[in-house]
Structure formats: C-alpha cells, structure tokens
C-alpha cells in the first residue's frame, strides 16, 4: 500500500531504474548471441526477471553479478535447449511476444503461460503472422490466448503490413526473421519504439529501416556485446509529472533514455505549457541518453492523437492525471491499444481517477479529461497494473486529502523503489 498527500513545491535531481524494453532485449539478444553479453543498469523489475527465468529454462547461463549487472552466456540460437516445464512470463507481454518470435524458428517444443492479465491479452497479433512464416503454434481459442505451445522449425521470410503500431509485434517478427529464409519486412501505420532496430546492430546484425518500415535478412548470427541500459523514460514520466502536479517545483532526471520513439510524453508536457529541457549526453547501443529537466507554473488542456500515441502509449495514465490539473479539457484519441495493456487502461484510469473527484469520460479510443479539478483524497486500486498504481500515487500530490493506493506491489513490475523515491520528493 502507498499513501500520498499534497506536497509543497520541491526541487530534485535523480535517476530512475533501467529501461524495461531495453533490459528485456539485452537478455534476449544476449541469449541468442554467440559469446558473452555484459549488461549494466539492468532493470531488476519483475517483468525482466521473468525474461531471465525463461531463458534460464532454455539452458542459457545468466549470472546476476549485482542487482543491476547481468552476464549472459549466449550460445546462439542453436544453443537453446528444450525446456522441461512451461515458460512462465508472469505479467510480461514483451517477454511472451518476443519469445514467440525466437522460439518459432528453433527446433524445440515449448509451452508459454503467464498470469491472469497475460491470459486476457491478445496473442493473435503475433501468432497469425508467425503462422504465415510457417510457425507451428497452438493455444487456447486457436492461439488467441495463453497457454500457447510452439514447435519451432524452418521459417520463411514475410512481408507484413501490421494493422497496429506495436513494437512487440514488429520485434517478434524481426526475431523470427533472423531465422527465416530470405527477407522479412515489417511495415507499421506509425513507427513504434525502435529499440530492437537500435540494439540488434550492436550485436552485429544488419537491418534496414525507412520510416515505419524495417527489413531484415535471415540467417544472421548475433555476437555478444556490452549493453548499458539508460533510465526508463516511462518511469521518469511519473516523477516529471509529480513536478507538474505541484506548481513551482522542478525535477531533473539524469541518464535517462531519450530515444525519440519514446519521448512523446515530453512533447505532450511541452504542448501543455511545461518548460522541458533535454540534453543528450551520450549514445549507448545506438540509444540516445541524457538529462531532462521540467518545471511549470500553469498547464493547459491539449489534444493527443495520431503518430504521437505510440510514442507515449505507456504514459497515458499519468498524462490523464496531469490533465486534471490543466486549464481546459484534454482529449486523447487513437489510443484503442490502451484496452489491451496490462489492464484496460481506458477503463482503469477513468475508474480510479473518478474516485478522487476527477471528471473524465471514456471514449472508444481514448478519454476526455476536464481540467481544473480539485482532486480529493480517497482509496484507489492498481488493478494489478504497475502504471495505474503509480499514476494514482502521483495524483495524491495535488489532492486535498490522503490518497491510498492498494495493490501497490504491482509497481515492482517496472519501478522497484518507486514508493521510497517519491517519498523523498
Ligand atoms: C513494449 C512495447 C509496447 C509497450 C510495452 C513494451 C516493448 O507495447 O506498451 O510496455 O518493449 O516492445 P506494444 O508494442 O504492444 O504497443
């Protein structure tokens, strides 16, 4: 359980735990590479630990040198062993979808399961194109949902027009494409996060990208490398938002990932009138890294839609919280994907924010939030969704009474140490 209440203006400089998307990929790519991959700044959150556990079951030796440093002893795709027990991905959509791509092209049998939330999340989006590549996958409701089983084998390259902008779909197919005959091309309606495209070349893989299209040639091998993981901009978003909830505050987050496919939340905060300064100081595995400083006196409502949505998809719950404090109305459109995240985030964001007096309308593809509301104290629930739990805790920073967040243990999925960190603000 987390309790938060109204804050006085504060100033803080801090770092946040490692990027979840990059941490997952560092383990997966390290596992299918030849040789050793050293990972620093790894996120020791529940989701990424699920990825480590699953690859351990596939016979990959993975050493935890410290909380945040990991050594992966990769032996190539061919080194993956048939697992004796089902692979349990826990709450992690990235683990299951990317692993399906890897497992489809390796001649072993495996079964994938996860928690209650994973059991509701759509898998057809990857199962269907993988089957077109020749993958043999079966599962509940003809492979729409877990449990899923994969009998890996030979794959054919595929040209796929994805109906959704999803990095999990894109990455799954690119990983399958690495083992397929010929070329695999994935086109998206808008470009989704491109960590796979940035990181694979660090492992020696060649690929071509052009706008929202990626092309990869089959039969390439990966070579182990060193991965430094930047702070997660999706985690930083909660502390940046905290500063916006308390006018007169200023927060700097250092060594955070600034990949442009992820920084939509900074653009949205700027559109709302926040002063956002960004300084890129480095590139790690082709990923820009640097510092973000935010401050604001007064926010205004905005319209968020189109190509911006995949660039801030995970930040919409906290964006909705901030929008309650803006002058005027905020409209979020084109965000149907929210319905199939860890929870239906249109429903859970609206339901929980209303408990604190927010005026928020759910729509088919997003929500409409009335600004200028005085939030009240109240008792909220994470619904087992880390980002809903954190968003509600930050809402307390501008509430007239105490906000209690139940189910706060879910926050460990992506942001271990969140409660301690915000208590220091
Ligand atoms: C992720 C992609 C996004 C995001 C998720 C992590 C990834 O999902 O919401 O938290 O690491 O590739 P989709 O690709 O399904 O939109």
TrEMBL record:
Classification of source organism: Bacteria, Bacillati, Bacillota, Bacilli, Bacillales
Active site: 314 (proton acceptor)
Keywords of this entry: Amino-acid biosynthesis, Aromatic amino acid biosynthesis, Cytoplasm, Transferase
CDD domains: EPSP_synthase
Main location: cytoplasm
Positions that bind phosphoenolpyruvate: 20, 93, 121, 168, 345, 387
Binding site for 3-phosphoshikimate: 20-21, 25, 166, 168, 314, 341
Pathway(s) where this gene product acts: Metabolic intermediate biosynthesis; chorismate biosynthesis; chorismate from D-erythrose 4-phosphate and phosphoenolpyruvate: step 6/7
Signal listed as a keyword: no
Subunit structure: Monomer.
Domain of life (superkingdom): Bacteria
Alphabetical list of Gene3D superfamilies matching this protein: Enolpyruvate transferase domain
Classification via InterPro entries: Enolpyruvate_Tfrase_dom (IPR001986), Enolpyruvate_Tfrase_sf (IPR036968), EPSP_synthase (IPR006264), EPSP_synthase_CS (IPR023193), RNA3'P_cycl/enolpyr_Trfase_a/b (IPR013792)
EC number: 2.5.1.19
Catalysed reactions, semicolon-separated: 3-phosphoshikimate + phosphoenolpyruvate = 5-O-(1-carboxyvinyl)-3-phosphoshikimate + phosphate
Family: Belongs to the EPSP synthase family.
Name assigned to this protein: 3-phosphoshikimate 1-carboxyvinyltransferase
């Amino acid at each position: 359980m987390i309790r938060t209440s109204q804050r006085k203006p504060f100033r803080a400089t801090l770092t946040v735990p490692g990027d979840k998307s990059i941490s997952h990929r560092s383990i997966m790519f390290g596992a299918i590479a030849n040789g050793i991959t050293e990972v620093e700044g790894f996120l020791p959150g529940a989701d990424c630990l699920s990825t480590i556990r699953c690859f351990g079951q596939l016979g990959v030796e993975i050493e935890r040198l410290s909380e945040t440093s990991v050594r992966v002893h990769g032996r190539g795709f061919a080194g993956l062993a048939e697992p004796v027990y089902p692979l349990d991905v826990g709450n992690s959509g990235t683990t299951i979808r990317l692993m399906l791509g890897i497992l489809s092209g390796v001649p072993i049998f495996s079964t994938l399961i996860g928690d209650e939330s994973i059991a509701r999340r759509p898998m057809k989006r990857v199962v269907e194109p993988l089957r077109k590549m020749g993958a043999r996958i079966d599962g509940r409701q003809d492979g729409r949902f877990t449990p899923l089983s994969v009998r890996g084998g030979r794959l054919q390259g595929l040209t796929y027009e994805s109906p959704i902008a999803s990095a999990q779909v894109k990455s799954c197919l690119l990983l399958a494409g690495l083992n397929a005959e010929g070329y695999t091309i994935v086109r998206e309606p808008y470009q989704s996060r491109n960590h796979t495209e940035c990181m694979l070349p660090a492992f020696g893989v060649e690929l071509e990208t052009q706008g929202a299209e990626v092309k990869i040639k089959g039969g390439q091998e990966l070579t182990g490398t060193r991965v430094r993981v930047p702070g997660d901009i999706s985690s930083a978003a909660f502390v940046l938002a905290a500063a916006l909830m308390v006018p007169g505050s200023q927060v700097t987050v250092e060594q955070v990932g600034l990949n442009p496919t992820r920084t939509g939340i900074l653009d949205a905060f700027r559109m709302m009138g926040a002063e956002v300064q960004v300084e890129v100081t480095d590139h790690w595995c082709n990923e820009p890294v640097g510092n973000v400083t935010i401050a604001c006196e007064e926010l205004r409502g905005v319209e968020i839609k189109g190509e911006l949505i995949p660039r801030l998809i995970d930040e919409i719950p906290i964006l909705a919280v901030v929008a309650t404090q803006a002058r005027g109305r905020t409209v979020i459109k084109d965000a149907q994907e929210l319905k199939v995240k860890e929870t239906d985030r249109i429903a859970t964001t609206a339901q929980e924010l209303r408990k604190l007096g927010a005026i928020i309308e759910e729509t088919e593809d997003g929500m409409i939030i009335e600004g200028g509301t005085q939030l009240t104290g109240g008792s909220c629930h994470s619904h087992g969704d880390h980002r809903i739990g954190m968003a509600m805790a930050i809402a307390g920073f501008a509430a007239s009474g105490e906000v209690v967040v139940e189910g706060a243990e879910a926050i460990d999925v992506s942001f271990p140490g969140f409660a301690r960190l915000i208590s220091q603000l």
